[in-house]
Amino acid sequence: MKLKGFSVPLTPQGKSALATLPPWHYSSDCMAIEYWTDPDAVAALLPPGLTPDPKSKGRAFFWFLDWQFTGSNHELTDPARYQYREAFALVEAIFEGTPVNYCPYIFVDNDAAIARGWAQGFPKKLGSIYQTRTFSAPSLAAAPLAKGSRFGASVAAHGERLATATIQLEEKVVDPATVFNRPTTMRRYFPQLAADRQNKPPVDELTMSLTDNLAIVDVWAGPAELRIPEVQGEDMHVIAPLRVGRGYRLGMAYSVTDLRILKVLSK
After folding, report:
1. Regarding beta strands 171-172 and 128-131, do their DSSP bridges make them parallel or antiparallel, or are they unpaired?
2. Considering only CA atoms, which of 200, 217, 210, 190 is closest in space to residue 24?
3. What 3-state class would DSSP assign to 178?
4. C-alpha distance from residue 71 to each of 4, 76, 81, 255 (Å)
5. From the CB of residue 139, how many other CB atoms can be counted at a distance below 10 Å?
6. Are 102 and 58 in contact (CB under 8 A)?
7. Which DSSP string do the residues of 61-116 spell out, in sequence order?
8. How far apart are CA 183 and CA 39, in angstroms?
9. Tally of CB atoms within 10 A around 115
10. Most buried residue among 64, 129, 183, 231 by CB atoms closer than 10 A?
């Protein structure tokens, strides 16, 4: 009998695989903080094939997301498995003349999301992520999508707070494409343990995230704060903000069925 599964573990029934075959469908409430960091620190993080964007001057975004996802069999009715939260940094770069984002750091609280992310090239690590939610029933705790509402978010790992953010909604954004308009690139990297090949990864690729049916809705903007402190065992603080721009609160949805390999970095 053939063993089945998109990812390990492979079994005769295929039910235990950590990540299922695409398509993967996602819906999320998001916070994104625009900021500027040290351009030299951004340049040092970029893999071969990407170059710094001189127009960006160290511009980056820090994202917090509260996700629900599903495959093709109504998996969203099993929220214990199919909900998760995520936080990541995107720095601006150039690929062959095209402005792109690059993801150097990302944290998530769901093991299936880690498996899917590694398959795409996102360098996902386990973390603890929280953000303010909005509710329809009126209350001081409801955080409605309205002028004056305040939202907060944080990410921690191994007992250390890695980033903290706040936003106060000020106005709706009419055209989200004026803010969010760069594709995201990643480095898909898998090492091997054999002693004579530990510096020769079997997979080392620059990839681009492909999102079908992308929808960005209910975008609000306003003043924001973002802190990325130095903590033991992490080095994300090297791209800590020197200046913070606007914060955004939005809804986002898309599907994933494919991945674009931009460049093979080593063989």
Report:
1. unpaired
2. 210
3. helix
4. 16, 8, 12, 10
5. 9
6. no
7. EEEEEEEEEE-SS-GGG-HHHHEEEEEEEEEEEEETTEEEEEEEEEEES-HHHHHH
8. 20
9. 17
10. 64
Separation of alpha carbons 59 and 170, rounded Å: 22
Q: What is the pTM of this model?
A: 0.97
128-131 and 184-190 strand pairing: unpaired
Residue position matching structure tokens 């995520």: 86
DSSP one-letter string for 187-240: EEEE----GGGTTS-SEEEEEEE--EEEEEEEEEEEEEEEE----TT--GGGG-
Q: What are phi and psi of 150, to 5 degrees?
A: -115, 140
b/e code 24-60 from CB counts within 10 Å (16+ = b): bbbebbbbbbbbbbebebbeebbbebbebbeebebbb
> CB within 8 A of 148, min separation 6: which ones?
168, 169
- Say which residues have a Cβ less than 8 Å from residue 165's Cβ, sequence separation at least 6: 31, 33, 62, 64, 152, 153, 154, 224, 225, 226, 227, 247
